[in-house]
Specification:
about 270 residues, about 40% helix, Rossmann fold, alpha/beta, 9 helices, 2 domains, about 10% strand
Length: about 270
């Protein structure tokens, strides 16, 4: 039965872009497989013991679409000029690089920087790499697992609506998601995002033994990732909102800083005029 379900999912998604097809496959696999974590090869979240790597989570600097106050998460647009860093975003990325340098210091050598391939994420990763003297072998693009959370039919709406969408979908259920848009803009639930970030961490834990910086666009991917690491309810992930350029150290979860709930801020949504 499991094989049949997965086959149908892959066949139905055949016409979709590769990254969307992969996301749908991962979501279906997570929903249809009851194998224990050690058998599946995926990391248990929250971790039951310290992780192999120490992690720093970084939201990319402000993009042009964010400065314009527009939701732009369609993966077809992630390489466009509108997804590049603004002047303010470049300053945020430089400040983030300084913060990461202070966290890791020079003792262990440069960290691995794994980054989403959206234009402003790549630019942020390049700034981090230059500041931290990261060799090209340690600058690792992540094709789709760190992409911005898809908001589907809400693509192109004002960023000021995001807290409303959190209340409408995320706070109600980790499985609730917006409708997909007619132009193919992908819609994701919190659970869909969780499936992606769990795989990213699992890959890092099984292939690396290093300090790792994860760079992602938007806030949702990072807030879901951090909530899952800390064992918080994913329906409350937005209490861990990230501002553009924000840096957080979670370590190996054996030395991570204590989690403290806070009211979701809106300063990450758009820059004041």
């Amino acid at each position: 039965m499991t094989r049949l379900v997965l086959l149908l999912v892959v066949t139905a998604a055949g016409a979709a872009r590769p990254e969307i097809q992969r996301r749908r496959f991962l979501a279906a696999a997570a929903a249809s497989t009851a194998a224990p974590a050690d058998a599946s090869g995926l990391l248990l979240l929250p971790p039951t013991k310290p992780l192999t790597n120490r992690y720093v989570l970084v939201r990319a600097g402000e993009s042009r679409s964010e400065a314009d106050g527009v939701i732009e998460t369609n993966t077809a647009r992630k390489f466009l000029f509108s997804n590049g860093l603004t002047e303010e975003g470049a300053k945020q990325a430089s400040a983030a690089a300084d913060a990461v340098a202070r966290i890791f210091g020079d003792a262990g050598g440069p960290p691995v920087v794994r980054y989403a391939t959206a234009r402003h994420c790549k630019q942020t990763a390049d700034i981090l790499g230059a500041r931290l003297a990261v060799p090209s072998s340690k600058l690792l693009p992540e094709a789709d697992l760190l992409d911005a959370r898809g908001y589907g039919a809400h693509e192109g709406e004002g960023l000021w609506r995001v807290p409303e969408l959190w209340a409408q979908y995320d706070a109600r259920s980790r499985y609730a998601k917006p409708p997909e848009a007619e132009d193919g803009s992908y819609a994701e639930s919190v659970e869909d995002v969780y499936v992606r970030v769990r795989e990213v961490l699992s890959v890092c834990e099984t292939t690396l033994c290093d300090d790792v910086v994860l760079v992602a666009p938007g806030s949702d991917v990072l807030s879901v990732l951090e909530a899952s690491l800390r064992g918080r309810r994913l329906t409350d992930h937005f209490a861990l909102t990230y501002a553009p350029g924000e840096v957080r150290y979670v370590g190996d979860m054996g030395d991570a800083r204590p989690w403290a709930p806070r009211r979701p801020s809106q300063h990450h949504l758009f820059r004041p005029a």
